[in-house]
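Anyone up for a design puzzle?
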């Protein structure tokens, strides 16, 4: 009997390879470039008062995200938070 030939997947179809630039790294670099450009364009961008204001605005979404993550991890899939917050 002749040995069976096993078809090898094409190089672009292999799922084990990772791109050198992942999406997360690209977004982090884009955010850093945007912050650097804004800090050069506007001198008040990176002052303490503005950063405190940003943290205050982001903290609400962060607290809600932690709550939704807890609900999803425990198996009680309830994604209605967006409609409750929108009221």
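Challenge accepted. My sequence:
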């Amino acid at each position: 009997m002749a040995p069976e030939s096993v078809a090898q997947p094409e190089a672009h179809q292999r799922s084990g390879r990772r791109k050198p630039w992942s999406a997360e790294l690209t977004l982090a670099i884009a955010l850093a470039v945007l912050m650097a450009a804004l800090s050069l364009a506007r001198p008040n961008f990176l002052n303490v008062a503005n950063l405190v204001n940003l943290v205050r605005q982001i903290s609400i979404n962060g607290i809600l995200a932690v709550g939704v993550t807890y609900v999803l991890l425990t198996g009680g899939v309830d994604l209605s938070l967006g409609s409750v917050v929108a009221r």
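A detail worth pointing out: The two ends are 72 Å apart (CA to CA).
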